[in-house]
Amino acid sequence: MEFKLTEEMEDIRKLARDFAEKKLLPTVKDRDENEIFDREIFNQMGKLGLMGIPYAEKYNGCGLDFISFAIACEEISRVDPSTGIGFEVHTSLCSWPINQYGTEDQKSKYLSKLTTGEWLGAFGLTEPNAGTDALNGATTAVKQGDEYILNGTKIFNTNGGEAEVEIIFAATDKTKGAKGMSAFIVEKGTPGLSFGKKEVKMGIRASVQREVILQDVHVPAANLLGKEGEGFKIAMQTLDGGRVGVAAQALGIAEGAYEHAVKYSKERVQFGKPISKQQAVAFRLADMKLKIEAARWLVYKAAYDMSNNISHSVSAAMAKKFASDIAMEVTTDAVQVFGGYGFTREYPVERYMRDAKITQIYEGTNEVQQMVISGSILR
Ligand code: CAA
């Protein structure tokens, strides 16, 4: 057993870190304050090969694994968690199910453009009355000839309205419960597909979450992903992977806030010495670092399981819950280290604290992760 990243993984870390520090850092504050979604960022990430890290070269991906992807997610989120989630949803929630369940035609048509960043991806599962209870959605798909007609509304859709490709989940037969949901690849621009309210949020303000409205949207039957009735399984398996990405995002958020806190503690002088020399601050920093390192290995282990086709529902749930909880704790501690300044917009730690909160909620609330973990213990 080796606790060591490969050279390729270190190269991805360097690539993502350089990009984050050179391209994201200069504008991150402005984009957060003014809620600016900048598509050009994803175009540039595509050119660097970051938008298709875990997918085959045949589909223009890098042919690497999910640990490399998690590291990239961590590094992007260490500087800019808003870009982190757009990147994560694109790679995990939209590209993964196409890679896993897509036909050859679907992969060459969609995955090959998602991996280059030419097209951006989104994932439409959540509805006004179906959040945690994801099976309870009201969106329907009715087969007519060689098409499905989709009707319904999705909410909190990350990249919604910006993405060229949406994975939409809809009931093809409500009476069949989990076996009555199907997944569809829906292209932006399809008549009847429109986008409603853009959410105004506490954090990740430079990412977009929009309402997706489907009114008699005609989707070719060729765009059914997997088989009819496999949609819920596809959604759950996709989210198992997505949770690894959110865990990596949370890890990056904690690291970003922690590094700012360490730096500030060495510069800020009170009672004639840097506050880092006060044991109350030094011990707080020690605990922050400890939590980050513990989270790191849960995140990389879940990504390792995913890369090696080891069942990762539980390891992903553990990583997501732990990393998001410590992200909230570490960012709150970082604000505390900064004192009154930490509460102002002058320093970035308040932004990290606002951004951390959603990692405890999306891609399955942490209570859902407890359901998954306890279910595996008590089965
Ligand atoms: N892999 C494969 N199959 C799975 C599965 C998994 N991980 N989890 C469940 N299933 C299967 C079950 O085996 C079962 O199949 P059978 O009927 O054949 O036995 C079927 O799915 C139903 O499972 P459950 O009875 O467990 O389903 P449930 O209705 O009780 O729901 C739940 C379970 C865990 C609460 C689930 O609904 C869930 O994960 N909810 C949270 C949804 C979620 O994460 N939403 C996030 C939206 S995306 C987002 O946040 C995007 C963004 O913007 C960032």
TrEMBL record:
Residues 122-217 form the Acyl-CoA oxidase/dehydrogenase middle domain. Pfam families: Acyl-CoA_dh_1, Acyl-CoA_dh_M, Acyl-CoA_dh_N. Coiled coil: none annotated. Residues 6-118 form the Acyl-CoA dehydrogenase/oxidase N-terminal domain. One of its GO terms (molecular function) is acyl-CoA dehydrogenase activity. The keyword Oxidoreductase applies. Residues 229-376 form the Acyl-CoA dehydrogenase/oxidase C-terminal domain. This is Acyl-CoA dehydrogenase. The lineage of its organism: Bacteria, Bacillati, Bacillota, Negativicutes, Veillonellales.
